[in-house]
Each structure stands twice: as structure tokens, then as C-alpha cells.
């Protein structure tokens, strides 16, 4: 009589093992479709080679992937239970970070160093594999548009950027490199510093821009100085809106939004050339929009 339960019990264990193996295979096959593509795989392969060379002293920064800022759309690969550290340029200050999928990704901040060598970081963690989303980082020097992907086991522990010579973030006086004049005056008993920037003399500016939308994120001023468009935002914004260009679709097609290259100087967006039609959009804590249109 004692043999019957054992005879039934062993097949149950056996079937359970088959089902577990099947579930794992399905999971692995599903995740495999999202493993890094060619460019990400090359970066990961380079990272692996760097780690292998570190013992001989050839690579001084094992575990690090370096991107050239401004050359293409950068993709960062992360893994569950691992951290991806995205480092800014020393002395660069993060003004805001917005992620497309805030439910299944975590974005935290960290700081290293001190004084002029202070470096701000964003720490990225996915909660699952096979995820894709986008991340916008705005700083006092530039904007970073990144793609995020989560993999089963591949990831980039440390990510940083190198910048073109003479870029807006390069030190020296980067503002003078853009021919911006600074007017600094002391105001009030607390000796607060008020910094006003000018791209050109006021009489050479074209301020014929129409601004519409939510008052909270409407620019204080927009002008074109013959070389670049400057959009001055309110100083009380906790995070900067996303700036995009609107392309006129004509009579038969709808207008389309596209990316635009810009730099941030304090509360100013600086766009090379004349910006004919653009949109500012802020998603958090509430969705706000404003449009800028050049009217000649």
C-alpha cells in the first residue's frame, strides 16, 4: 500500500521538470530577440576586450564604454540586477532627466569628486529584460538623447562621453567660444549675481516670433541674431522641456515633429540657424506644451 503514492509522485516531479525547462526555453528565446544589435554588440565586444587587457595595464579604465558626443544616436545596454552608470562631463550640472518608460526603468542620481572636478552621474536600472525606451538628459551645457535597452546578461557598467574640440562644454570660457557677452551686476543686499547673456547687440536681433501654449513653459523671449536662435526660458523651471522642431507637412500631410540639435546656456536654448517652427513639451508633473513660430 505504501508503493502507490511513490509511483504517482515520481511522474509528477518528472512532469514539473519538463515544464520548467520549457518555460525557461521560451523565456530565453523571447529575450534573445532583444539582445544587442550590431552597434551595441561592437561596443560590448570592445568592453570585453578592454576588460581582458586590463591585467596587462593596456586599458586603464576597464568596464567603461566611451561615446563621441554628437555623433549619432547612442544606445546604452543594461541588465537586470546590474547598474549602468552614465557620467557627465566634470563640472557639468544635470537640470533634468526624462525617461519614456518610468514604470519598468529606474533613474537615480549620484555625485563623485568635489570642487571643479565634481562629476554628476545618472544610475540606470531596468526591472526586466527585453525592454526598450528612450532617455533625455538636459544639463547646463547640452542635451543627451539616448536609447536604453535591457538584455539578459549583457550590459555597460560605465558610460561616459568625449566631446569635439571647441564644444560648448569644453572649459576655458565656453560662453566666449559662442561669442556670448556676459553682463554681471550685483543686486540687493545679499550681493546676488544676475547674469545676462547676449548673442549680439539688441538692434541686430529679430524678435518676430509668435509664442502660444501653456504659460508655465512659455519662453520669456525668443530672437534670431542672424546666426542662431536663442530661446530664453523662465528661471523657476525645475526641469527643462523637450525642444523639437515642427516640419510643415503642407496641404496634404500633417505636420511632423523632429529632433533638433541645441545647446543649453543657463536657461537659454541655443539653436544654430533660424528656427521657423518648434515645440516645447514637458511631461512631468503634468503635461505642458508651448509652440514657437517665426512670423518674419
Concise summary:
With 296 residues, the protein is of the alpha+beta class.
Description:
This protein has a five-stranded mixed sheet with strand order 1-9-3-6-5. Strands 12-20-19-15-16 form a five-stranded antiparallel sheet, with no helix packed on it. A hairpin with a 3-residue loop joins β13 (221-224) and β14 (228-232). It folds into two domains: 39-162, Immunoglobulin-like; 209-294, Immunoglobulin-like. With 296 residues, it is α+β, with helices and mostly antiparallel strands. The protein has helices spanning 3-32, 38-53, 174-177, and strands at 64-68, 74-79, 84-87, 94-99, 105-112, 119-126, 132-139, 143-151, 158-162, 181-187, 192-198, 209-213, 221-224, 228-232, 242-247, 256-259, 263-265, 268-272, 277-282, 288-294.
Question: Strands, helices and their partners?
Answer:
Layout: H1 3-32, H2 38-53, E1 64-68, E2 74-79, E3 84-87, E4 94-99, E5 105-112, E6 119-126, E7 132-139, E8 143-151, E9 158-162, H3 174-177, E10 181-187, E11 192-198, E12 209-213, E13 221-224, E14 228-232, E15 242-247, E16 256-259, E17 263-265, E18 268-272, E19 277-282, E20 288-294
Parallel strand pairs: 1-9, 2-8, 3-9
Antiparallel strand pairs: 3-6, 4-7, 5-6, 7-8, 10-11, 12-20, 13-14, 14-18, 15-16, 15-19, 17-18, 19-20
Secondary structure class reads: alpha+beta
Apparent shape:
globular
CATH topology of the largest domain, anyone? Immunoglobulin-like
Distance between the termini: 96 Å
Total strand segments: 20
> What is the count of structural domains?
2
Please outline the major beta sheet.
5 strands, mixed
How many DSSP helices? 3
Order of the strands making up the biggest sheet: 1-9-3-6-5
What proportion of the residues form beta strands (DSSP E)? 35-45%
- The CATH architecture of the largest domain would be Sandwich
Topology pattern, helix = H, strand = E: HHEEEEEEEEEHEEEEEEEEEEE
Radius of gyration: 25 Å
Low-confidence stretches: 3-35, 51-60, 166-199
Helix content, binned percent: 10-25%
| Average pLDDT over all residues | 74
CATH level-1 class of the largest domain: Mainly Beta
